[in-house]
Design a protein that fits this description.
The complex is a heterodimer. Chain A has strands spanning 3-7, 10-14, 19-26, 31-38, 44-50, 56-58, 64-68, 73-78, 87-95, 104-106, 110-115. Chain A is built from no helices and eleven strands. In chain A, strands 2, 4, 5, 9, 10 and 11 form a six-stranded mixed β-sheet that branches. In chain B, strand 9 and strand 10 (102-103) form a beta hairpin. Classes of the chains: A mainly beta, B mainly beta.
């Protein structure tokens, strides 16, 4: 069974500082991996996804994530935080194989606060 | 309209009421989903429809009844809900299962 662990339910950074949100997964087969962002009173928006191409994935708003198979990690980073990045971030994993496999498992989320 | 839309955005209902949530996707996708998002808990998958057929029901109480009349529309019919059903209900769609979901803005439901 696949699972996702997001280390830290709340991360606080200063504006302009590096953002690092951690995600570790477990999956019996090579996975698809995703990061979603949820702004207040909105649904989830896809930031980026890994689907077996380059291990370093670039997403919207200068976010990127690196798939590290040896560490079973898919951490999300951004070089310089902006006030508008304050939101909740969800990591998710989906098994790749299986003709009808549609399970997308979400982590519990990490709330990012950006301080001026 | 583009993407995934949901109506209403907010809903307050009593435990004896019957109401319906509506979701519409304008992306040409072939799979649609209902998720429940409660505070401090991971997103819970409730129902999955692929090509208009229900392919999963994750042990959801019968007071929640989904309907998928076509590949663009998905409903969640609600009746005799409980206060613990108060949550954000998110609809999503995707092209082929197993890939990223496109989410709607959600319906914030409060059951009194």
């Amino acid at each position: 069974a696949q699972s996702v662990t997001q280390l830290g339910s709340h991360v606080s950074v200063s504006e302009g500082a590096l953002v690092l949100l951690r995600c570790n997964y477990s999956s019996s087969v090579p996975p698809y991996l995703f990061w979603y962002v949820q702004y207040p009173n909105q649904g989830l928006q896809l930031l980026l996804k890994y689907t077996s191409a380059a291990t370093l994935v670039k997403g919207i708003n200068d976010f990127e994530a690196e798939f590290k198979k040896s560490e079973t990690s898919f951490h999300l980073t951004k070089p310089s935080a902006h006030m508008s990045d304050a939101a909740e971030y969800f990591c998710a994993v989906s098994d790749r194989e299986g003709g009808s496999n549609y399970k997308l498992t979400f982590g519990k989320g990490t709330l990012l606060t950006v301080n001026p | 309209e583009t993407g995934v839309t949901q109506t209403p955005r907010h809903l307050v209902m009593g435990m004896t009421n019957k109401k319906s949530l509506k979701c519409e996707q304008h992306l040409g996708h072939n799979a649609m989903y209902w998720y429940k998002q409660s505070a401090k808990k991971p997103l819970e998958l409730m129902f999955v429809y692929s090509l208009e057929e229900r392919v999963e029901n994750n042990s959801v109480p019968s007071r929640f009844s989904p309907e998928c009349p076509n590949s663009s529309h998905l409903f969640l019919h609600l009746h005799t809900l409980q206060p613990e059903d108060s949550a954000l209900y998110l609809c999503a769609s995707s092209q082929d299962v197993g890939l990223g979901r496109h989410f709607g803005p959600g319906t914030r439901l409060l059951v009194l």
